[in-house]
Amino acid sequence: MFNNSFKVALAQIGAVTDLFKISEQEKKIEKMITRASNKGAEIICFPELSYIDGSLLEEIFGGVCRKNKIWAIFGAIGLNKEDKKANCAFLMDRKGKIMHTYCKQHLLKVEKKEYNAGDKAGIFDTDFGRIGIMICYDMFSVNVIVGYAEQNIDIIFCPSLMVVPIPELINYQRNIVLKILPHGISVLCKTYFGLAMTAGSKLIAESKMFAPLGSLKANNLSNDQEAIVYGEIKKDDLEILRQI
Q1: Inside any domain, residue 244
Q2: Which among 18, 36, 79, 173 has most CB atoms closer than 10 A?
Q3: Structural domain harbouring 206
Q4: 157 within a domain of the structure (yes/no)
Q5: Is the predicted pLDDT of residue 1 greater than 50, yes or no?
Q6: Residues 6 or more apart from 243 whose CB is under 8 A from it?
Q7: Does residue 228 surpass a pLDDT of 80?
Q8: Which CATH number is 43's domain given?
Q9: DSSP E strands: which ranges in the chain?
Q10: What is the pLDDT of residues 171-191, one digit of tens each?
Q11: How many domains does the chain have?
């Protein structure tokens, strides 16, 4: 039986740019998992590619999720259904097991040289509710977004590493990424929408959560700050909205 409400955590953390610093990143992630659990979150979502190898997630983070009895979403490199390299989000349960893997569907041109696209929406049932997962540039694809509409999803998580391809249009891009697209997806899919963004002074960041009608529910981070944003999902509000 699902609760009428539950808390989620959106992590904002820097990317791994140096393989020699991977152990430092692991310690940061473990601390954030523990902190989110202590705050009562059912799940914590980390940004796109915030870890390197998806095949190592159970070994590295399974224990801390199991100890803290919390679900987690990790952005890391994985394989699609054809065993080809993909940009993925891995959903780990409270027992520290990877239950599902979502592969990014809408790739940037530069990503297509390295990754293969997924072809299926990431919609998964958990013991606290139904969630959706999309990754970063998926937000820019109507074909991707419609796959999440009318699916009774409680919240869509969007791990992101948002670069600035056109520096002269930074303010325009920030408005699109941090306001217009999340707002539109939240309204269209009648669900909450959570951005878990990579921290960086030269990136479009600011992890935040949007409510079903598009209003901002949680946002208190600066662009380069490493921290956690919390938000509450109220299912009664979703049920009222879905009657429209």
Answers
A1: no
A2: 36
A3: 5-239
A4: yes
A5: no
A6: none
A7: yes
A8: 3.60.110.10
A9: 5-14, 41-45, 71-79, 85-92, 98-103, 122-125, 130-133, 155-160, 192-199, 208-210, 216-218, 227-234
A10: 888 888 888 899 999 999 999
A11: 1
